[in-house]
């Protein structure tokens, strides 16, 4: 310290403390002691009332937190303020500035004499030589006030204070080298700091200024704790320099470097650094938020909780809407905890709610969040209602609303079916439904107000069901209870009525609640909630509420989530708000039928035939009438007659007597598969109606069954004249018996056919009893060619077993055209395949339900249901023995029927007729044999037949193609006559091929030729027969095989009407059947 530093003494007198006399006396004593010109007095607060108001508050820069009501400087009058200003002006102009100018002049002369110039610099360096070996110390060497180094530093500081920055910079440079050589690092850093400020003030070199500040800052840091405070000061100067030059980003970096070990010190500087990032261009928001989080964390460590909350709350807008979920959870969780420490539990709960559904956090962190949240809630001592509570998550997009207007559902499965499926099924059952009318209300005979056409309609007393998916997004279980719908019901039905603030009364609606736990992560729990309006009016489903762990009530408003909700049984208007899907007009209560089908199996095998019972219940006070029913798949289900209710099954399927042949009709069944209940049928109030149904599993697979029942009400509601009941069932049908048939015509007898039946049991464990094979219609008579015991000794087919057997099929219609006029008995169209000593009557395939299901099979295959007496259809009936397990009838044998329609058979058949033995005297050159070929066309098309004959084969002529002979063409099938004693022996097609492939020993058979036409073309009308002559010439006795001819045929539809069966095989080629003629030499 300079002992000769300028000294000036000021005496301040407050007029509020007493008169001026005492102050005057004291001033005299001061002047006597310190000098006459170095002492001065200033009087303040001369006002007596203190009510003076200053337009410009003189203390505003020094006390910015002063309240507007505080009257700062109220006792200072204008004279006091002028006196203070005059004193300061006099002090600076007459004392300080002259002293400093004089001091600069003296010091500059001393420095110039001792340090400036080449000689003085060389002397200084020589004198300081060897100081490199000085050990570094914290403070360095001690410089006295009179030392040249101290004088140079004072000269630089005075020059800096007076604005002579060039002089100051030259002296700072001069002394900086000395301090560095003397290893006086603290003084060296101070000089570098002043050089940086000087460079900044002269605004010449930014690079030099920042270099000096960087050098000074690093030197302070090397000094450790002794230089920490100086480093902070240097950093703050450095920051202000950077801010002045708009280098805000670099200033934030310096703030971060200033941070030290002191927590509060670091918190303040980190907060200032974050503001620099915010003010930079462009703003660096993520760094701004990150440094604020660091600042808040340091504030919390030094128990400055309010400052920590302030910084953390400033971060919330930064990360809102970003994917930085972890830091957002950190911010909200800590704010919640800190508010709880301050006792502000309501605000704490608000912030804790934002971290409840943290799916990205670990299981441990989720448990921590949830536990602390419930602890804070418990401290409040009340139950919180939270809108948009995130636990559990409600999947609004999967929201399903089930309600019933004129369309009612028998089950939830029926309500889940697409509306388009039901509409296509109901096209024939609703009388006036057409494509031009899309709204069901247009179908009513009476004009309906527009408000009903454009609204969702529900019936008073009938529940509206809402399926809501609750999802637990956490990895830990949560407890959810008391889930219920929030509804508003208004009794005012006017369109303009405002019911938004009307709550449902206890006698107006009923809302269901559900309780349960969602136990693990990513588990969906679908809850069905119901609301039942009791009066007419407007009902609106507002949202859903639930309880989380019995302490927090969650609310979800559906209108605030305009998602794509699925309204299962509602109608959407072209333009409507999202809330319209949950707004209903409640109309007057109307009758509603409930439907059940008893004994319908969920799983069965193909062919299963059984009776069912449809039960319709009317729980209302009004009857319903004019019932109609339509079934989507009549192959599986159709309605029977009332007399078939409670029949003895399967005895009801048997023939009453063997002599009686019954047709089958069902007058109630229309061609559109709509079943009309009898006109006098109605379901009275609080009564039920039972109606028989027949079930037949036609094909295997997962089969959906859709059933719609239409009924009408009278005098109940002017809005709805009818309603429909929709029923839906899913069946699983497993494979059972695979049945196929092959027919072959017999050449010698055109009215007889060979039938081969192949049966395979394709089940895995069931054992079927083969009971009966029947041909459909009265044209065919069928009989076994072998005994049943030789075909199937066990009378049953076990799993995986196959069976092949042969039958003779006779065309009774052709037999009736013979010359014999004897009345023919009724054909035997059934063959018993079970025990032959069984006296039970066979199943009646010509009566309901077997005949009806057969009609459905033909219709499904594109064949007419009537007029199939000219075709060959078969029905195979099997049974599962008594005791087989069935879910509905464990002790009743199950009956299975398998239907085969239009079994494959060549539409062209022919017979070669003529003498089989001839005697001839071969003294004549040749022997002529006359034959006749009868060709029959059994199809509905015109047949073109082409017969090509070939000469007798021999080893020297055209050889027989063994491959062709052994493998008949595609449609060649049938029997053949062979030269044995009895021409009734039967062989199969394969046996025939093998037989024809064996060459008879023709060593002794002479050649023969076809002496007639070698090519004949014929045209046969539908279902006609034509005869054509044939002739051969033989040249020697022997036995001749006349099968060397080929018959080609082609079918042409009549009037463009194509039969499906005939279209699949419109042409064919058949080789001739073996026919043997023996020519003997006459004596």
UniProtKB/TrEMBL annotation:
Ranges where the TPPC8 first Ig-like domain occurs: 419-572
> Which protein, by its recorded name, is this?
Trafficking protein particle complex subunit 8
- Which domain of life, per UniProt? Eukaryota
**InterPro entries, sorted:** Ig_TPPC8_1st (IPR058541), Ig_TPPC8_2nd (IPR058538), Ig_TPPC8_C (IPR057651), TPR-like_helical_dom_sf (IPR011990), TRAPP_III_complex_Trs85 (IPR024420)
Q: Where is this region: Disordered?
A: 495-515, 817-844, 950-975
Query: What is the species listed in this Swiss-Prot or TrEMBL entry?
Result: Hibiscus sabdariffa
Q: Where is the composition biased (Polar residues)?
A: 498-515, 950-969
Q: Where is the TPPC8 second Ig-like domain?
A: 607-725
* Residue span(s) of domain TPPC8 C-terminal Ig-like: 984-1044
